[in-house]
Amino acid sequence: MSTLDLQPVALPNPHIQTSLVDVTNRLPIKPPCRVFFKNELEQPSGSFKLRGIGYLVKSSIEKAKREQPNKEIQIFASSGGNAGLAAGYSAYYYKLKCTVVLPVISKKVVQDKLKSYGANIILFGNNINEADKHLRNLMNSMDLDEVVPIYCHPFNNPTIWKGHETLVDEVVDQLGPSQAKNLRGMVCSFGGGGLYNGIYQGMKNNNIRNGEILAIETSQAPTLTQSLKAGDLITLQSVNSLATSLACSHTTKNTLQYFNDSSFIESKLELIDDVDALRGCLAFKKCTNKTVEPACGAALSVVYDKIDAFYKHFGHLKPNDIVVIVVCGGTCTTDQDLAGFQTIINKSEIKL
Ligand SMILES: Cc1ncc(COP(=O)(O)O)c(C=O)c1O
Question: How big is the CA angle at 51 (ends 45 and 54), to the nearest 5 degrees?
Answer without folding.
Answer: 75
